[in-house]
Fold this sequence. Notes:
The structure holds 2 protein chains of 2 kinds. By secondary structure, chain A is of the alpha+beta class.
Amino acid sequence: MEIHRFERLWLALSLLLILGITGTVVYGATAEGIKMVDDSGGTIDAENLQDTEFGDPGVRKVGENRYDVYIVAHRFFFDPGTSQPIEIPAESTVTFYVTSADVVHGFQVADTNVNTMVIPGQVAKLTVEFDNPDSYGIICHEYCGSGHHSMEGELDVVPKSEYNATEASA
Amino acid sequence: MSTPTADETVTETTTGETAAGHSYDASDRLAYVERFPDAALIVRLCFLVAFGALGLGGLFGVIQALHRTGIYRGVVSSADYYTVLTGHGVLLALVFTTFFIAGLFTWAVTRSMDRPLSSIRLAWAWFALMLLGTLMAAVAIVAGFFPSLGISADVLFTFYPPLQAHPLFYTGAALIIVGSWLAGANYFLTYREWRQENPDARIPLQTFMVLTTMLLWYLSTIGVAIEVVVFLIPWSLGLFEQVDPLTMRTLFWYFGHPVVYFWLLPAYLVWYTVLPKLAGGRLFSDALARIVFVLFLLLSTPTGFHHQYIDPGIPEGFKTVAMTNTMMLLLPSLLTAFTVVASIEHGARQRGGEGRLGWLRSLPWEKPAFSGCALAGLMFAAGGFSGMINAGMNINYLIHNTLWVPGHFHLTVGTAFALTVMAIAYWLVPQITGKRLRNRSLAAVQPYVWFGGMVLMSNAMHRAGLAGIPRRTAEPEYNVADASFTGVVGGYQEMRIQIAIGGVLLFVSLLLFLVVMVNTWRSEKSEQLRVDSRIPDPLSGPEHGPRVLDNLRLWIAIAIVLVLLTYAIPVGSLLADGVFAPGGPTVPV
Lengths: 170, 589
């Protein structure tokens, strides 16, 4: 079968593009350490969250500059996040554990790459670093019912020096 | 038969191709409807349902564009927005696509093998089944506007459990799929008859494309069929307490990615086999077209996890495998870009085009069948690049479930497919009705209006997605939280306006199309058509490609092996803790 030389060149460039794009992902995964949400959060009984870590959701300090945040997505609010903002100090490493008490939701901290599906029965686990004080919106980005558009929250990254007051209550 | 009148035929018969011994004769002017009246009736009915769904789905689309941008929220409440959104997704992505494809494939199979369908009764059966399914699903969706009826299906196109729709919705969706399977059986039985009479011939190119696409469809719809028939219908009838949401998502996306190639490949069929002729030339290479379709059959299905990159519960390794397969799928599309552009350039040069890019001016841009396909192909290139971002596993964190994603698929299924459908209808509807195209000047501007509307809407949707603005929401602005979206490129207000204007332009374009179709359909039959149905042979014919390309059994066997390699372990581990576990509460909508 004869292939025109222009087409051979095109084929070579196409393969280069495919390798290049795949290469950026591999670079992100290895050099930058971007890990995908996976099965490491484990499974959970969505109808009995009260007997788990999610029975008392919120921020927990687990080490020097390290925090775990447990969040339950309900139709149509995040607990915590919606009625009171989630507060964490700047210059910290934060692991979010997010699960659902009812249907499929989304959990996205807008303007960051904190973005996961929230699936009943599964715990989504993401570890990220927050370097600077800022305020972020949290969005449920998966349709979860007629009030879906009102499902939002807030994440406040406060200066380290101002954090101690809230830490005690978390 | 009288001689051709001085209309479109003038340019089409002076392409220079006649010198190569392919003279047109009067029979090419005879409508397809005269040769295959039974099949033509089925094709017409399929197109009728498809265009009806397109009209209603498009109306829902413009309501959404105005509602979610906040330009006008008076048509429906924000709670009913999701009824509209479900209707938009199901009518366009399932009904419009499946019916049009079933009709187009009926035409392609009968035309390219030059024989009627094996069984017209089977054709009536699959059409009736698909229509019944459509009516059931439509009733369930539209009933959502009337809460007193107690029937609702506000679960969107993806119907993720544990949100639960009325059983009518799931049953209707299942009947559409089963009907499409029977349509495929109709094509295969017709092919078998042809094969008995032509034991050594190469499969005609269009038939080859139909059969490989249907094999891909059979392989991929197994996932959604199991999800709906085995799990969701019994669950919605109350026979099961719960289903596992992640297993259901996995079954859905096993189907949910290859389905986009089920939409795309019919557009490719048109671009490979009809577009070169509309440009005044011939297809570059028959063998490369076959290779492209085989690659899609092999690689389309083992990719579904790339829709689940940020799903918890699925190990990263399986996501990586899906990414690699997805990236390899770029290859057949990039090959298509080359072949289609080369074929068009050949056509332009046949028409006297010269120069490095000057040949572009020699193309029939005033003919909507050509311009629509060409613009659809151009937009598909842009959609392909945004698709590469979607497919980049960790890059996906930035855009997953943001407005970027519908920005992407309005370029692909919303333009590469939909605009190609409208364009080819200008060429095909006269053949299946025996009527000349009416309102030709409206038809001539229609693809450009679509293109303009989509440029506005889609670019703004992509950029809004980068700013984090979510998809699938009636009110994307913050209501509760003290936050705002900051545009990465451009401002929030500017994107909002572009999306709304773009949506309105798309709807205007759709109305133009429907006016042309209705007036054409209602006009008198014509003795002689303006269009000619002949499709010239490729520059490089099937004899220059290896025969193994036609070995459909081999390709489907390899495709099945690839699916097993990709899915056996992760699905096994999802089911290991119990088929219905971990479940969740059932939430009827």
